[in-house]
Amino acid sequence: MLLEALYHVPRDKWAYAYDAETIHLRVRTKRDDVDCVVALTGDKYDWDHTYYEIMMDKTATDEMFDYWEAAVRPKYKRLCYVFRISAGSEIIYMLDNGIRSECPPPAGHYYEFPYIHGNDLFKVPEWAKDAVFYQIMVERFANGDPSNDPEGTEAWGGTPQLNNFFGGDLQGVLDHLEDLQDFGINAIYFTPLFLSPSNHKYDIVDYKKVDPHFGDNLLLKQLVEQCHQKGIRVMLDAVFNHCSDKFPPFQDVLEKGEYSVYKDWFHINSYPVQVIDGIPTYDTFGFYGDMPKFNTANPEVKNYLLEVAEYWIKEIKVDGWRLDVANEVDHHFWRDFREVVKNANPDAYIVGEVWSDSLTWLLGDQFDSVMNYPFSGTVLEFFNGGMDGTTFEHRIGALLMRYPQQTNEVVFNLLGSHDPPRLLTCVGEDKRRLKLAVVFLFTFMGTPCIYYGDEIGLTGNEDPDCRKCMEWDKAKQDLELYDFYRTMIALRKEHKALREGRFRVLQACEGDACIVYERNDDLLHFTIWMNNTNDVRTLSHPMETDDWRDALTGEDVVPENGMMHIPLEPYDYRILCRNLQ
């Protein structure tokens, strides 16, 4: 065994309380280097009566490592443990103070999980596990009230520019709530709704006022109430990293400079406050002079923004916040933010915008979830022919091992949003590739999100082209694609195994882009078969039982001599399932 590859620490994603009775343990070993890992567990105060050996499962693999996992239910909410690792005739023991060839008597130098404290548990909103989100940019969704259109509003469906308007508003969303309900989504993520000079609203002037071009606070409250009546949750966008240069406190700084009482609300590097050769003399989002960055360590700023977060939860009854540019705001602020939001609504869902590994924010004291851009990047690369099945398996395995299971169950998985090119454009307008990616989205762990219009075939390159107006003329919609999305939403909502069940790749070959994977819980077992190639293929995998059926048609699918053979056209898929009880 390569001992240098062995890794475990008794904290974070490696040893954590999943619930009030269960501790999850993970161990890393070199890939294909170890036959089995066994957790030797017990209570350090009563080892003889609580000792229990647990065979760990190899739950994920990446390019270099295997990851082993076990769930332990200690009798007294305390756990003392050591790992016995075997490769052929070689056996070693992995302890808190190193690696040994023999196991010392308990419990000196064993790993410890001291106690499962209820107030330390990382609890995520249960409803987020069942959610299917739909992201809406209100300005581009539907114009329900032309009387509030901005000056110079263009005809619906025109070419999106960085600074043009088409008149979308909250009334337009209200007008189409039944359409969304019929589609099957049960959660909406709105990009910013508050007073702002731009079409995207990420430069906010008044954080407690709905932009008049969208409606007003009472209309938003009415919209949220109607959403709740239809079983639809609502998540708003919190832009707390920066504001608009029209934000009154920043205007005061522009006017009074270092004599402004608000000068410490921002990061002012020199006076006068200005932009020189494209570089502001104050910190901003990127180098955009019209988006000055908040000093969230300032108590006045913190109190102001936390009051905003609480206001919309309490007064409008929104169900969560998506946090813009979350990684550029200090951790102290987000810890206080979580406390305020969860006190206002313990069931609120907090999703940070972080584009890379986000474990720092996902340890129970800050966010519930993040926008999983590494997932979308990996999925789109695979289904665009950028990697083989083995590489895809490794990348997905590495993503699953980034976070504790409760985060994996509600991580915000998306294939498109208001920033990158449209999904259909990303796959070269090949609907077959798009469908494979969407099938994976809806049969993988995490909370799926659909960007408005992807379901009816909208195309578009990067911002602003990806922000086209929603197409409501059914003659111009791809209704076959719409029905496909609707079917996948219904399948996921019907079966808990597709929302919370275990995930495992069954077959992925080097040099080949076909994969077979499974999702299962105690009631239902799914297998998903994908031919991600331009050739007709028959995928085969051992199946011990003959009670399989097609999950979409109900047709029986019977293996031959213990081997399942699934013929697939190019870029085709099939979803099988069987009852376990």
From TrEMBL:
This is Alpha-glycosidase. Pfam families: Alpha-amylase, Alpha-amylase_N, Malt_amylase_C. GO terms for molecular function: hydrolase activity, hydrolyzing O-glycosyl compounds. PANTHER family: ALPHA-AMYLASE FAMILY MEMBER (PTHR10357), MALTODEXTRIN GLUCOSIDASE (PTHR10357:SF210). GO terms for biological process: carbohydrate metabolic process. Gene3D superfamilies: Glycosidases, Golgi alpha-mannosidase II, Immunoglobulins, Oligo-1,6-glucosidase, Domain 2. Keywords: Glycosidase, Hydrolase. InterPro entries: GH, GH13_cat_dom, Glyco_hydro_13_lg-like_dom, Glyco_hydro_b, Ig-like_fold, Malt_amylase-like_C, O16G_dom_2. Residues 135-492 form the Glycosyl hydrolase family 13 catalytic domain. It comes from Paenibacillus donghaensis. Belongs to the glycosyl hydrolase 13 family.
